[in-house]
Amino acid sequence: MPILDKEFVIRTDGTINMPYLGSVKAAGKTFGQFERELQTAYIEKNVFKQITVAVKPGFRFYSVGGEVKAPARQTYSGPTTVLRAIVSCGDFNEFANRRKVELIRTSGEREIVDCIRARKDSRFDRDVCPGDAIHVPRSL
């Protein structure tokens, strides 16, 4: 049987609509747990005698805007920080206020990052998560 590469999106209720299985809860499970659950379900329902299921995340993004050289939406490919995210957009431009960089979380929570302090001490450099936005304001 041919290898099928299908992409499915988790709905807001935490479920995925899978062929032959219908709605399956994915939220709260690790990739490995969800893979095993799907394999078992397909075999128990006699849809397949043998199947290998691989679950992986889709592309996730964060954005950097404001006073950077190349504002952009960036692909989140693993742990990164505010300073690394800004560097990935060409670094600050000459008008940037490096002391009041705003990190906007997907939850709406806002944090101010002093990037001058963060460059001196990495403890002040905040982690960036998928869906976050970084805004570098203009200095006065």
The CATH architecture assignment of the largest domain turns out to be Roll
Domain module tally: 2
| Main structural class | alpha+beta
Helix tally?
3
Distance between the termini: 64 Å
Indicate the mean pLDDT. 92
Quick one: how many beta strands?
9
Give the H and E element order: EEHEEEHEEHEE
Work out the helicity level. 10-25%
Shape: elongated
CATH superfamily of the largest domain: Outer membrane lipoprotein wza domain like
CATH fold type of the largest domain = Outer membrane lipoprotein wza fold like
Q: How large is the share of residues in beta strands?
A: 25-35%
**Strand arrangement across the biggest beta sheet:** 4-3-9-6-7
Task: Describe what this molecule looks like in 3D.
- This protein is elongated.
- With 140 residues, the protein is an alpha+beta fold.
- The strands form three sheets. Strands 4-3-9-6-7 form a five-stranded mixed sheet. The protein has a two-stranded antiparallel ribbon with strand order 1-2. Strands 5-8 form a two-stranded antiparallel sheet.
- Helices cover 19% and strands 26% of the residues.
